[in-house]
Amino acid sequence: MRILLADDQREVRSALRLLLEHEPGLVVINEAAEAQALLATVRAACPDVVLLDWELRGLQAAEAVQALRATCPRLRVIALSGRPEARHAALAAGADAFVSKGDPPERLLAALRATEV
Predict the structure, then answer these.
(1) Cα–Cα distance between 38 and 33 in angstroms, integer?
(2) Could you give the CA distance from residue 1 to residue 3 in angstroms, rounded to a whole number?
(3) What whole-number distance in Å separates Cα of residue 87 and Cα of residue 54?
(4) What CA–CA distances, in Å, run from 72 to 15, 48, 66, 88?
(5) Contacts of 47 (CB under 8 A, 6+ apart)
(6) 3-state class (DSSP) for residue 111
(7) Which of 16, 39, 44, 46 supports an S-S bond with 72, CB 3.0-4.6 Å?
(8) Which pLDDT value is given to residue 116?
């Protein structure tokens, strides 16, 4: 599974990369720290999954999932947020799953595995 990390905090991207690099079948293909880089990378690489910080700098969250899927129709999006209350908005906007940044790593890995086709 080819994964794009999209979060404006370098520490969060690094922690996610470290977690995912130890999981068989998961490959982090790139990272984006803001919305323009996210869209450009999705256009260029069409990853299988985007781990998307719901509060990503420059992102119109409610429209982001549709814009990403317009670029790459089979893309799956897992929304991440430090605000658990963002769950409803993310899922209503079309995210495939939502994981709070405060959840244990196993929760994120389970969400990734659940999106596999």
Answers:
(1) 7
(2) 6
(3) 9
(4) 26, 9, 10, 23
(5) 2, 3, 4, 29, 30, 41, 72, 75
(6) helix
(7) 46
(8) 81
Q: Report the topology of domain 2-115.
A: Rossmann fold (3.40.50)
Domain boundaries, given as residue ranges, for the chain: 2-115
Q: What angle is formed at CA 100 by the lines to CA 9 and CA 74, rounded to 5 degrees?
A: 85
Contacts of 53 (CB under 8 A, 6+ apart): 6, 7, 8, 9, 12, 59, 80, 81
What are the tokens at 51?
């781990």
Give the end-to-end CA distance of the chain in Å, rounded to a whole number: 10
Cross-strand pairs, 28: 3
Tokens 């420059």 — which residue? Answer: 58
pLDDT band at 79 (very low <50, low <70, confident <90, very high): very high
The structure tokens 């999209």 sit at 6
Distance of CA 23 to the CA centre of its chain: 16
Whether 114 and 97 have beta carbons less than 8 Å apart is answered as: yes
| Band of residue 117 on the pLDDT scale cut at 50, 70, 90 | low
